[in-house]
Design a protein that fits this description.
Elements lengths: L7 E12 L2 E12 L3 E5 L6 H8 L7 E6 L2 E2 L4 H6 L1 E4 L11 H11 L4 H14 L15 H13 L5 E5 L7 H14 L4 E6 L2 H7 L2 E6 L2 E6 L1 H4 L5 H9 L14
Helix pairs in contact: 3-4, 4-5
Length: 254
């Protein structure tokens, strides 16, 4: 690697996940350098969530390995977790807690000292614009504010890498606009892998697209390269096919 080349912050190397005869993902490989915002695109059920759960350490691969900031997610899981903020789709939040209580709880679980915890809580409350609901029970919050609280939790320890799974799913247009604005701002200082099946998301925030279909990578390039000769929507249809196929034990199609 050239001396001035950016660090590889997210790497998937031959990742596979099998559930009995079902092939969830097969030989998924890619690397993401420092400072890049990448859309992980594909239809529902393509394998996006499985891949992201493996990269975030919540799921073990059947084959292959991954790393965060050069740390193996299996052998250096705790160190890798310190570099990573993960926002799952519909991530679990404690409805009886307020955002402040939740953030303090997660900060203490992460081992932040009293001073750092106070500083970081104040920082993410402002960054995610949740000050107006900071003392309101999470169970009473709108979907948009719940997503902001989830993002605040993911950012609490100031990670270098963010992995977000369908972060704007279920939000209204205003909430989506605000959340995408947050992502663009975060992309100035962090490496981001953002899964989505929404083409407007790609146009709005990403400089690179990794496309997965039926558990396999089928495209890796810029949005401009993806839409070459047509629109993103047309390319989406080309990459997925007009008829959905069924994966077999051997990874073939029937």
């Amino acid at each position: 690697m050239p001396e001035n080349a950016p660090r590889t912050m997210i790497e998937a190397n031959g990742l596979c996940k099998y559930y009995g005869p079902f092939v969830a993902i097969k030989d998924v490989s890619f690397s993401i350098p420092q400072g890049q915002v990448v859309a992980f695109l594909g239809p529902n059920g393509a394998g996006k969530t499985t891949t992201m759960k493996i990269l975030s350490g919540f799921l073990s691969p059947s084959e292959g390995h991954g790393s965060i900031a050069g740390l193996d997610i299996r052998t250096d899981r705790l160190e890798a977790a310190r570099k990573l903020g993960y926002l799952p789709e519909n991530g679990p939040l404690y409805d009886s807690m307020t955002p402040i209580e939740l953030l303090k709880f997660f900060g203490e679980a992460r081992g932040l000292n009293k001073y750092d915890l106070k500083t970081r809580v104040e920082a993410v409350v402002e960054q995610c614009a949740i000050g107006s609901v900071r003392e309101k029970p999470i169970g009473k919050l709108s979907k948009g504010y719940r997503q902001r609280v989830g993002l605040a939790q993911a950012l609490l320890h100031d990670p270098e890498v963010l992995i977000m799974d369908e972060p704007t799913a279920g939000l209204d247009p205003n909430q989506i606009r605000d959340f995408r604005s947050n992502i663009r701002e975060l992309g100035k200082s962090k490496t981001i892998l953002l899964s989505t099946h929404i083409l407007q998301e790609v146009e709005a925030v990403a400089e690179r697209v990794i496309f997965i279909h039926e558990g396999r990578l089928v495209f890796d390039g810029s949005p401009e390269e993806m839409r070459k000769g047509g629109t993103l929507e047309e390319k989406f249809y080309d990459l997925t096919g007009s008829v959905r196929t069924v994966r077999t034990e051997a990874g073939g199609q029937v």
